[in-house]
């Protein structure tokens, strides 16, 4: 849960973190290896940003075997949800290329075979 807007805005102020959140919102749930492929960034960089997003209360994760999947935290309050929905609506184009890269990978489990 985000109790104050400050951590939310700090978390979204970085371009990589904003793209990660928008990508997750577009897909619902995304694996770390899918994010590295979609954004063309290293796994350590993606993981560092995901850790900050988790600490800020924006994301939740789940492990499935060797893969870790991220989604928006179900504990987000209504204010944070509204901000994220508006951000996604107006800035969805920020992840168009990333979404195209994901589509080129196919669907799961094909994606997992390609990147993990």
Describe this structure in words.
- The structure is a single chain.
- This protein is α+β, with helices and mostly antiparallel strands and 116 residues long.
- The protein has a single domain, classed as Arc Repressor Mutant, subunit A (Orthogonal Bundle), CATH 1.10.10.
- The protein is 61% helix and 12% strand.
- The protein is built from seven helices and three strands.
- The protein has helices spanning 5-12, 15-27, 32-39, 43-55, 78-91, 96-104, 110-115, and strands at residues 30-31, 59-64, 67-72.
- It has a three-stranded antiparallel sheet with strand order 1-3-2.
- Strand 2 (59-64) and strand 3 form a beta hairpin.
- Helix 2 crosses helix 5 (78-91).
- The radius of gyration is 13 Å and the shape is globular.
- The N and C termini lie far apart (31 Å).
- The model has no long low-confidence stretch (mean pLDDT 89).
What topology does this entry show?
Layout: H1 5-12, H2 15-27, E1 30-31, H3 32-39, H4 43-55, E2 59-64, E3 67-72, H5 78-91, H6 96-104, H7 110-115
Antiparallel strand pairs: 1-3, 2-3
Helix pairs in contact: 2-4, 2-5, 3-6
Q: How many runs of DSSP E, i.e. beta strands?
A: 3
Ends: how far apart?
A: 31 Å
Going by helix content, strand content and strand pairing, the class is: alpha+beta
Strand order of the largest sheet: 1-3-2
Q: Mind summarizing the main beta sheet?
A: 3 strands, antiparallel
Low-confidence stretches: none
List SSEs in N-to-C order: HHEHHEEHHH
What would CATH call the class?
A: Mainly Alpha
Indicate the mean pLDDT.
89
CATH architecture annotation: Orthogonal Bundle
- The radius of gyration is 13 Å
Keywords: Arsenical resistance, DNA-binding, Transcription, Transcription regulation
Organism: Oceanimonas pelagia
InterPro entries: ArsR-like_HTH (IPR011991), HTH_ArsR_DNA-bd_dom (IPR001845), HTH_MetalResp_TranReg (IPR051081), WH-like_DNA-bd_sf (IPR036388), WH_DNA-bd_sf (IPR036390)
GO biological process, one term: response to arsenic-containing substance
